[in-house]
DNA sequence: CTGAAAGCGCTTACAG
DNA sequence: CTGAAAGCGCTTACAG
């Protein structure tokens, strides 16, 4: 690289603007103690040299890196969720002039390396942990980090976190199905992924609460588990439901991902959705709209957005409460995979009307 | 923050290990010129203090930041693609001990800010541009960056890039449909998104090439465009195809995203897939498997992986050819949305057999 | 194999 | 409002 191509430093800008580096530094950071004349000269020189300040140099003296680190699992999590959350984060962080450093952990080696060396420690001002299940020891390790840590899309007691109320969301979804007249509602949970375990847990709680509210018994046979990454497992779970003495009339899937699998399986064996079986998901996957999946929506973008605002507030007023919790709302989005149960499958209601005429649902 | 909680510096490690900072620096970087005794003392001290080197300080002297920046569009691109590509990138970069700095651009303000200030310039050693359409001026601007730039999931002439051969992939897909016996094959392109424009262009080229190979005429009426984010637009596009004097028997969608929309629309109006209409996608979206969508697969993960390897090789042997191109393969994945055309819709073949019996497809 | 010293490019008291 | 100087935490010749 020739000398003229060397990246401009503050000294270059200072020389060009005819001022000292101190003045350049002050002008570029917008400090008030700079004369308008000096400021405009500096700004012009900086532009002409396409000067960009070296965060390395400034962070060395300020102790602030101007960077926020994100720790996320690689494949456990749905990739769209990661992509969308990062987008939400980036928008807020760029306004706060913070850079985004991403650590995506896909295997055990990387995981121990990260927690051993804590590379974020010296290279970021805060850490966001996005849907990453930590052991208690790992949690403690992060507590020692000496910088703000925010848990995103997961609930961490006594630590700052941003998440949705999974139980409330599940209740919402269940009420929709109950209001349509369903009485035998199955629930499919995903297992195997190390993330989203709180979600699985809390969504099941919501499922049970809604049944209780409605005065319906909890039936173990209606709750099945499957590793959503193994198609055969989901197929078996659905098979279990389809071979019950009394088949459910609706399936509430723990996630859209599973709901899509269920949809595919039901279609392949000719079970009409929603005529014979309603299917409800959770998440509002980017494809849910296109495929008409009724679902309980959460917004990954808003989650990222809120997390970024939390972290940047934690970074500015260091006096703020460090363990703030932000609970984001969920919304039910009815589409075309949920409808009233078929009349002949609804014995305890004794409905004789055609399902269509039962669409006017009572309020929750 | 109390003094004991202050993050350990090399000087702390040196004191604890009873050596000089120079020796700590050398030991930690694995330089050979360190006695085994000193090395082990340093390593222990570093571990005990959970010391992490400050890249800010080291980069100031080496001129290397140890960071690779990624520039990506926020919403234009499919979020799963971003998430998966980043995961592929991260795995390779972490092995090369490079951190990942992510700039996600969602609006014009951020875009001009990025290209004006080029914040990556001083804060990363290389830039990866992921499916981001740049104007010629913006391209030139990046050329001035003075650091390696790699274009990912897009073709940039005379610049290092990693991408798939979209035209070849489209030919693959088309041959599958042709081999099944289809003669009237529609193509739906997406418009509106600023990314993937090369893809759209090249996939159309592949579509035409395959028709030519098969000796079939190109029919303008069979090629429609739609903004995949506007459901109504896709519906109209499908409506156009369904109201043609001679309806196509297959739709080759430019992306799985569109294919899913088409599937939903066809289902909603009772057009049996694949009985009446075959649908083929492109990308192998994470949900394609679950939903049985036949598609031409590309691997976002491998793209990220290859891009990271390219960039890290560019960073180590600076003498390497700077404009290397890596073309990744695509694979046809036949699933359940493609089948032979219905006999009555295939006049030029004069097939009388029932579609089912025609499933034994001729080899390509 | 090891250490003392210079210096990377900034910011920040300090003096004016 | 401005500048000279010190110093942030490292790495790298240089000398031993």
Question: Could you give the topology of this structure?
Answer:
Two copies of one chain form a homodimer.
Chain A: H1 10-17, H2 21-28, H3 36-48, H4 55-62, E1 67-73, H5 79-95, E2 99-105, H6 108-117, H7 120-123, E3 126-130, H8 136-143, E4 149-152, E5 160-164, H9 166-179, E6 185-190, H10 197-213, E7 223-226, H11 231-242, E8 250-253, H12 256-268, E9 278-283, H13 288-291, E10 294-297, H14 300-316, E11 325-328, E12 331-333
Helix pairs in contact in A: 1-2, 1-3, 2-3, 5-14, 9-10, 11-12
The structure holds a DNA duplex (16 and 16 nucleotides).
Q: Can you give keywords for this protein?
A:
homodimer; 364 residues; alpha/beta; 434 Repressor (Amino-terminal Domain); Rossmann fold; 3 domains; six-stranded parallel sheet; 12 strands; 16% strand; DNA-binding
Structure, explained:
The structure is a homodimer of 364-residue chains. By secondary structure, chain A is α/β, with parallel strands linked by helices. Chain A starts with 9 loop residues before the first helix and ends in a 31-residue tail after the last strand. Chain A contains 14 helices and twelve strands. The first copy, chain A, has a six-stranded parallel β-sheet, sandwiched between helices. In chain A, strands 7-6-8-9-10-12 form a six-stranded mixed β-sheet, sandwiched between helices. Chain A folds into three domains: 3-53, lambda repressor-like DNA-binding domains (434 Repressor (Amino-terminal Domain), Orthogonal Bundle), CATH 1.10.260; 67-164 and 301-327, 3-Layer(aba) Sandwich (Rossmann fold), CATH 3.40.50.2300; 166-298 and 331-358, 3-Layer(aba) Sandwich (Rossmann fold). Chain A has helices at 10-17, 21-28, 36-48, 55-62, 79-95, 108-117, 120-123, 136-143, 166-179, 197-213, 231-242, 256-268, 288-291, 300-316; strands at 67-73, 99-105, 126-130, 149-152, 160-164, 185-190, 223-226, 250-253, 278-283, 294-297, 325-328, 331-333. Strand 2 (99-105) of chain A pairs antiparallel with strand 2 (99-105) of chain B. Chain A binds a DNA duplex (16 and 16 nucleotides) through helix 2 and helix 4.
């Amino acid at each position: 690289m020739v000398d003229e191509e060397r990246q401009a430093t503050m000294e270059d800008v200072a020389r060009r603007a005819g001022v000292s580096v101190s003045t350049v530094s002050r002008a570029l950071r917008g400090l008030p103690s700079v004369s308008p004349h000096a400021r405009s000269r500096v700004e012009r020189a900086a532009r002409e040299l396409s000067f960009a300040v070296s965060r390395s140099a400034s962070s060395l003296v300020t102790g602030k890196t101007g960077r926020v680190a994100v720790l996320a699992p690689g494949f456990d999590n749905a990739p769209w969720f990661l992509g969308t959350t990062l987008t939400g984060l980036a928008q807020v962080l760029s306004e706060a002039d913070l850079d985004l450093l991403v650590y995506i952990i896909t295997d055990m080696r990387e995981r121990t390396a990260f927690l051993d060396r804590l590379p974020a420690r010296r290279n970021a001002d805060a850490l966001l942990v996005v849907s990453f299940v930590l052991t208690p020891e790992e949690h403690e390790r992060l507590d020692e980090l000496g910088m703000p840590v925010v848990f995103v899309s997961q609930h961490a007691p006594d630590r700052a976190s941003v998440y949705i109320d999974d139980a409330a969301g599940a209740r919402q979804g269940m009420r929709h199905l109950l209001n349509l007249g369903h009485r035998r509602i199955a629930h499919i949970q995903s297992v195997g992924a190390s993330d989203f375990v709180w979600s699985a847990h809390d969504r099941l709680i919501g499922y049970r609460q809604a049944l209780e509210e409605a005065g319906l018994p909890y039936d173990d046979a209606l709750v099945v588990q499957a590793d959503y990454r193994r198609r055969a497992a989901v197929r078996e779970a659905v098979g279990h439901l389809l071979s019950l003495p009394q088949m459910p009339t609706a399936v509430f899937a723990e996630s859209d991902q599973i709901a899509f699998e269920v949809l595919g399986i039901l279609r392949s064996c000719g079970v009409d959705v929603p005529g014979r079986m309603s299917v409800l998901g959770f998440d509002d996957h980017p494809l849910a709209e296109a495929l008409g999946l009724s679902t309980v929506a959460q917004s990954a973008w808003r989650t990222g957005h809120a997390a970024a605002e939390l972290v940047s507030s934690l970074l500015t007023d260091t006096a703020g409460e460090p363990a703030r919790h932000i609970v984001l709302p969920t919304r039910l989005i009815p589409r075309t995979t949920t409808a009233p149960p078929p009349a002949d499958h609804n014995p305890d209601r004794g409905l004789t009307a055609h399902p269509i005429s039962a669409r006017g649902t009572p309020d929750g």
